[in-house]
Amino acid sequence: MFWADRGNNPLAPPEMPIRATRPGEEELACLCAQLRDRHFTYEQVGQTRGSRLPDGYHHVRAVVDIGHGAETWARAQDALRTCQGHRHAGASITPSEPPLDSGTVVIITVRVGPLFVVAPCRIVYATVEADRFGFAYGTLPGHPEQGEEAFHVARSSGGAVIFEILAFSRPVAILARLGGPIARMTQQRITRC
Question: Under the phi-then-psi rule, with left for phi > 0, alpha for psi from -120 to 50, and beta for the rest, what region is 159?
Fold first, then answer.
């Protein structure tokens, strides 16, 4: 495993795991356990609940119309529950079907060319309402960026169903800064799925 320097930022993760091979499930489960009590790597925890995102970060606001009706609403919730957007974008999730409960640690593994980036996060909050469902996760030590990303599906009174992403992030390591365009492309792939 290679490690990137965190620079002068005291809130930055101490390391960014980059691997030449995909990490095994046992190794990722162990990493989840190690990170259970670690703090988020940014101060604005929960800020994706509102419409004002913090300054000093790259912001993503995306809304996609995904259909209409009760069946679409049920499928959309199930897709979020099982992290299908991440999987369609080429990411793997550990645990494979995480409980969307506040405090759950998840590891997102993304292939970037010949390498694999391991990005630890924790669920910040979950939303379970009659016409809105989703969750947000925030970055933990070892993630190449700092910030929070929220994924929600919502249903209008007329039955239209939309998928929303609201995020703020910034790179913390030199490799993440260089890989910024790749991170943005991954976010766009998740939005389109």
Answer: left
